[in-house]
Amino acid sequence: MGANDNASGVAATLELARLLEGSRLRKTIRFVLFVNEEPPNFQTNRMGSLVYARELRSGGVPVTAMISLETIGFYSEAEGSQWYPAGLGYFYPSRGDFIGFVGNSDSRDLVRRSIRAFRASTNFPSEGLAGPADWPGVGWSDHWSFWQENVPAIMITDTAPFRYPYYHTPLDTSDKVDFARMARVVEGIQRVVESLANER
Fold first, then answer.
1. Is residue 112 over pLDDT 80?
2. For an engineered disulfide with 96, which of 34, 82, 88, 144 has Cβ 3.0 to 4.6 Å away?
3. Is 79 left (phi over 0), alpha (psi -120 to 50) or beta?
4. CATH number of the domain that residue 153 is part of
5. Is residue 131 part of a domain?
6. Does 191 map to a domain?
7. What is the residue-wise DSSP string for 128-169?
8. How many domains does the chain have?
9. Could you give the CA distance from residue 175 to residue 138 in angstroms, rounded to a whole number?
10. Using CA atoms, how far apart are residues 56 and 62, in angstroms rounded to an integer?
């Protein structure tokens, strides 16, 4: 249980730390795993990422971008395997074979820069969305906490409950994770992080 949500994000974070070890980048990168992301702590003062974001602000630590890795291991070629909140299905694919880059309206530029870097280096389907923070799904991870501190932040995701039928069930097990596609996504995210960290 919890193999995709969110052991996939944890595994990706650890692998990115390994891949980027020793890299000479212009900006500092922090790899952080947060507690209390799920209800009843979600979007409350007990949410670990919100505590951390506030500590960064109070400590005067400049943050130019935050990326939340939120369930990145499930993909399907079947038509109709991808679902959306009302209206979005007219603009996005019906197959759940892509990785999503999601931010709020204030993080629009970060979404564009990130997905551009991903597409430039990685042959993998990808979609971007920068929408109102209160749209269903847009703020459903730890990137939400950084918006509260006016930090551009995005979620990279397989869209979780909008695709994954085993979301928050005991059937969220490792046999549901597509490790080959997940590895390709992580390699692409590495290029995204490098690109962002080397910006002036």
1. yes
2. 82
3. beta
4. 3.40.630.10
5. yes
6. yes
7. EEEE-TTSTTTT-STHHHHHTTT--EEEEES-GGGT-TTTTS
8. 1
9. 27
10. 8
